[in-house]
Fold:
Amino acid sequence: MANCRGTPKQAASTAPDRYSSTMAVLEISDLVAVWDPVTGERLPVHRGEVIARLREVGDERAARIVQRMPVTGEFLDPVAVDRLLVRVHTELQRLNEELHMAQRFTEILVPVLTAVRAAGSRPRIVDIGCGIGFMVRSLAASGVLGTDVELVGVDFNRALVDEATRLAEDEQLPCTFVCADAFALAEEATVYLSSGLLHHFPADRLAEFFRAQDRAGTQAFIHYDIAATRLAPFGAWLFHRARMREPLGRHDGVVSAMRAHGDDVLLSAAAHAGGMDAFLFESPKYTNPFCAAMRPVVGLRPALTGDFRRALGRRARGLVAARAKVG
Amino acid sequence: MATTVPAVLGLLALVDAGFAGFRAATGRNARIRKRSYHLTAARRGFVVGAAALALVTLPIAATLVFTADPGARYDELVRAGTRMLQVLAPFAVPVAVSLPAYWLLPMRGSTFVILVGLGPFTLARPVVVIGATAWSVAGSVDWLVWAVAITAAVGVLTVEPLVHRRWYGAPV
Structure:
């Protein structure tokens, strides 16, 4: 049976709190597939409980979507759920392609890695919550980061990791995928990155997430997420309606935009990575919001910041720093 | 006008069918390199669109052969086609400009084109097609005009779901 509240285990691993009672809007994908973050074991999900939870927050449409999902007894059929999530992530990849997300990461990663190499570190990039690994595979396919870069995608969802691995092998891409907690890998990341992950954390858990990346071997992080603007939910509705077919994907796309954290929330949370300088890059406050539907939080070791700014060139003007470090 | 209007409408329908084929295949292949996959999808859309166009064209030709005054009825069809273009052209021109802009502009400009142009255009397309059909038949009492306009609209709007269901129902 699904655990219906955040657990100490989840807190320890900084996994997104899938059942926080403080969140007014819920993504179906967070509720229908649940893992023990320590053991990685798939937990059975009681369909009735998910539906009740969605009705509790007034989301009848989401409840109807879950009502149509196949069950084994009273529990959601994990195989059917996995197939659905792979379909949704495959559709979602199209949005990432259209928004040039791989180019956006590359734009920041290239100067970051230049600074990292100058500091003598071997670049190892870990994508947290990689899904079917679009970002990692795309960076691997482009080869633009250099042959010395190790690219790793990490996700709790075994089915998504298997799909990412299959796709990478199919195109013979130099990258790997692991079903695990990104912060419990045998080897630390030089650079952590994620795309569309931050809004899965409630605001009061973000600091913990960023603090976890302030570790000895880590030089930087880049986390892209939906820019929290007034237009974001409408834009998300429009694009998910136009580009996605799965009702779950359409629903969660809009909810994601509604849950997106504001610039101030992200910057103050990122400041909890005390050993790093934290920035927002091209926040919609300072740039055309129609060009910045997604914007990243960037963290760097202070020793790298100067080199990073220089390598970024005139784009460095788009960096907005956190006001004060915490911890 | 007698040849330009049907030629432009036919060209629009075929180009639209190619893009409908492309759209039908999107979100079903998560590979990174998929240029040939998209070209195949566009070709399938084009072929299905061409078949739909033939379904519209052949009955027109057959009816005109057996009608008492083919010239008048053809003129009536051209007038309806002109009205259809009055709605379609203002939609097709910005789409035609947006596509090369998306491909050629740098990342931020390209994103801008997607967010304010191509994305909303995709949602607006069925509405535009239905609006163009309604405007084209408005005022005409000729059953042939109504039949041709409605069949053409149905054909245009069904290419994408047909191609999707036939070839792209599940992820590759």
